[in-house]
Amino acid sequence: MSANIITLSRIVLAIITLVMFQMSLYFRVAAVLITMLVFYMDSLDGYIARKLGVASDFGALFDITGDRIVEHVYWIFFAAAGMVTIWVPIIIISRSFLVDTVRSVAFSKEGKTPFGEKSMMRSSFTLFLTSSRLMRGSYGFFKVLTFVLLGSILVLQAGAGLISRSLSIALLPKLALFTNVCVWITVAICLIRGLPILWDGRYYLLSRSFPRELKDAG
Fold this sequence. Notes:
mainly alpha, 8 helices
């Protein structure tokens, strides 16, 4: 239960930060710090669930749901603010819906989960792309870095009067360029981790229409 409360708290905090990003300088600074806390809590809920011995299939699915909500609200907010192209949340959200649909079918039909011993992935390679520490860590790192950088741009914009105009003119374009690179690296890793799920997911999707003999033969 404690782990699920942490997941719910992450969602609430993420929404609060979006409000703070639209306020004055010090609220924006606090929003950047809370953003880092929100994503740190992503690893904390799983750790607590394992430590207390209360890990469950529902908890794992709820954790993914929390991740989706948190990630999507940030992408939508920054797109609405004109800081990233609208295509970024379109790609991320579409990928999430497709992947979660396949995962739901795999779970409902055969009790397969996204990660762990009952993972729905059907090869070591696709399991590596979706579940390995390297891939999950890389995606998490660039996602947090991107949101922190985007938030930092909002901080600099709010604090433009506190720094010299020449420094602001020199710093912001470079920071924006670096941030944009991080945005598209994050999108790329997201797709790299998502496509194998759709590929292996065909087994569970087609199982409704084709005999098991045909599936195994394919």
